[in-house]
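Tutorial, part two.
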Amino acid sequence: MEVSQLAEISQRVIEAVEKASSKVMEIYDSDNFEIANKNDGSPVTIADTESNAILSNILKSLDIEAPILSEEGDIKKNKVSTFWLIDPLDGTKEFINKNGEFTVNVALIENGKPVLGVVSAPAIKEIFVGFADTSFKLTNGKKIPISSKKQSRDLCKVTTSKSHKSDIDQIFVDICKDEFEIVEELPTGSSLKLCRVAEGSANIYSRLGPTYQWDIAAGQAVVEASGGKVTSLEGIPLRYEFISEKKNPLFFCSGDPDYAWESLFKKINLN
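Running the prediction step on this input gives:
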């Protein structure tokens, strides 16, 4: 898809995400929402389903032939090369716990690659956008270009999960402490972890536990557009398929695509 077309589409996606985010915040501020559990035990609220409906309706109206794969949707096709991959509310636990670090995510996938990503964090009023080599953040009415940072030996800022940190995640943090002079740990919720790497606030985010495609795709587009990478522990870029419930491999997100993070992960026993 041409860059000019992605730029035009991105504006419509931003509008869709803003509308979905407004509905999410309306429910968030009401303090009156029921919490249910999905088949995998993860929580779901009316904010998930309302956001999904808004995003789906707007994306279907766009002049682009692309079905929608959503965490909250049903799949009717399997073999498509271009599709929308959305997570209408990533970080439902953050939403329920009222810490503000939840996101609304939309990615456009083309031949397995996320070519456009929009991530909205409505409670903190930030929207991250990435496509081609264009990446920026919208906040307080301003459009701010963002870029990831090269890794130094002096300081490493590691984002870790605010709600899902495991013992093996701590092992990686400890390995970083042996590798770098100073390590700062930045607990963060939802796909904001990827966005913090994209904007240069963090250097590395490792996910050594299960995730689904819709959790990561939009953030990956933002990271790659900002100069970073999102790959398996072996260094293979994450790719996406129009298959419901498909999980990602274990992966990491780095602001510096040239730093040899793969060698550090080899020190972890993942069996």
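The helical segments are 3-30, 46-61, 92-97, 167-179, 192-198, 213-225, 261-265. In part three we will examine how such features are distributed along the chain.
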